[in-house]
Amino acid sequence: MNSPLLSELPPPPHGKTGWPWTETPKPLPDRMPDGSEWPKISIVTPNYNYGRFLEETIRSVLLQGYPNLEYIIVDGGSNDNSVEIIKKYEPWLAYWVSEPDQGQVDSINKGLQRATGKWFNWLNSDDILLRDALKILATISKFQADAGWISGTSLLLSEEGSIVDYWVPWRTEPYILGLRYSSFPQDATFIRLEFMRQHGISLHPELSNVFDTLLHWQLLKFGNPLLTPACLSAMRLHPQQKTAHLENRTREVKNWLEPQEKTLSLWSRIWLRLLRTRFSRLFHSLLGIGISYGLPPKTQTWKAVIYDQQRYEWKLVAARDAVLF
After folding, report:
1. Which residue of 143, 233, 280, 325 is surrounded by the most CB atoms within 10 Å?
2. Model confidence pLDDT, tens digit, residues 43-56
3. Same domain, 137 and 157
4. Domain co-membership, 212 together with 248
5. Residue 242 has pLDDT above 70, yes or no
6. Which residue from 281, 261, 282, 263 is spatially nearest to 272, judged by alpha carbons?
7. DSSP per residue over 112-132, as a string?
8. Burial, 319: exposed, middle or buried (Cβ in 10 Å; 0-12, 13-18, 19+)?
9. Number of structural domains in the chain
10. What's the pTM value of the predicted model, to 2 decimals?
11. pLDDT tens, 268-297?
C-alpha cells in the first residue's frame, strides 16, 4: 500500500500542528534510485487504552510517504476512545482487530503472524516514527543485503511530546561492540522477517517488560545488526508505561536477561564484571580505547551506515569509526 497524502487523512484534532499532524514528507517515487522496488515494511501497533497517544502514532506511520507499507493495529479490547480512533484510519490499514488478549506480546504476535513485509517492527501506541524513517531504513538496507536486522537511534519524549534526550547506546557504551552485549532501542530496531523466521526467533508471551531485549539477545546469536546513528523513532516517557514499573522489570531481568549474560565468552564476562565495579569509568575508557584499535578482533565485524557530511550521501563504515566514547 502507498502511504496516503496528508489531504486524504482525517483532519487533526484542534490545536495539533507539526509532525505528524500538519506536516508530511514528500511522497517517494514508485522505485528506489537504483530502479529496484522499495522493500515492503510491516509495522504492527499493539494498543490497550492508549487512545490519548494512539492517533499520533498512527499518523506518524501513515504519513511516511512510503510506497510499500503494511500497517497492522492489534487492540486488546480497549474501553477508551481507541477503537473510535482506529476506525477513522481504517481505509489505510492492512488489518486491525479489537479483542481481549493476553497482553502486549500476544498483540504483537498476532500482528506478526499476519505480517508479509521484508522488514518488520512494532511501534507501541505511545511512540512515533520520525519523518522519512522508512525511507532511511530502506536506503540503509541496501548497504548490506544480508543484514538480518538494523538498529538506529531513538529520541526520548516527555509525556507532552517535548524532546528530552536521545538513545544510541552502541555509540556511547563500549560494552556493546566490545562484548557483543544486547542493548538496542526497540522502536528504532527493524528485523528482516525471513531472518527471524529462518532461525526460529520469536517473542516470549511469558514476559511483559524485557521481551524486546530478550529478542535482541536471540538475534545477536545469529548476526550483528547493521547500525546507524540516524534517528528513526521517538519513545514517550510517562508514568503509565510498563517500563516505569521497576519491580516487575527487575524480576524479569533476573530470570531472563541475566542468564543471557552467562552465554557470553569468559573474556566478556570478566570485562562486564569490571565495568560494574567502582572503577567502571576507568574500564569503560580502556575498553573504548581497545575498540578504537580493533581489539578484540570481533569488534571489527560491526558495521554502520552513517551520513557523509562532506559528500552529502550515506556510506558504510566500520562501526568503531563512528563511536562517541
Report:
1. 233
2. 999 999 999 999 99
3. no
4. yes
5. no
6. 261
7. HHH--SSEEEE--TT-EEPTT
8. buried
9. 2
10. 0.95
11. 999 999 999 999 999 999 999 999 999 888
> Which residues contact residue 214 at a Cβ distance below 8 angstroms, ignoring those fewer than 6 apart?
204, 207, 256, 257, 260
Judge whether 110 and 34 are in contact, CB under 8 Å: no
C-alpha cell at position 254: 533476573
In terms of residue numbers, what domain contains 277?
Answer: 143-325
Residues 190 and 274 in one domain: yes
207: its cell numbers: 514476559
Residues 87 and 154 reside in one and the same domain: no
| Bridge-based pairing state of the strands 69-75 and 41-47 | parallel
Instruction: Give residue 135's pLDDT band: very low, low, confident or very high (50, 70, 90).
Output: very high
**Using an 8 Å Cβ cutoff, are 126 and 230 in contact?**
no
From CA 66, how far away is CA 3, in angstroms rounded? 5
Please choose, from the candidates 223, 169, 226, the residue with its C-alpha nearest in 3D space to the C-alpha of residue 198.
223
Domain edge (last residue) among 115, 141, 167: 141
Which of 110, 141, 172 terminates a domain? The answer is 141
What CATH number is associated with residue 120? 3.90.550.10
- Sign of the dihedral through C-alpha 307, 309, 315, 321: negative
- Residues 85, 208, single domain; the answer is no
Decide: helix, strand or coil at residue 108.
Answer: helix
Based on the fold, state whether residues 148 and 181 are members of the same structural domain. yes
C-alpha to C-alpha distance for 92 and 223, rounded to whole angstroms: 34
Q: How does pLDDT run across 75-89, given as a tens digit for each residue?
A: 999 999 999 999 999
**Helix (H, G, I), strand (E, B), or coil: what is residue 317?**
strand
pLDDT score recorded for residue 196: 97
Do residue 199 and residue 311 come from a single domain? yes
Bridge partners (DSSP) listed for residue 153: 231
**Which residues on adjacent β-strands are paired with residue 43?**
71, 121
Q: How confident is the model at residue 211 (pLDDT cuts 50, 70, 90)?
A: very high
**Mean pLDDT, to the nearest integer, of 166-177?**
96
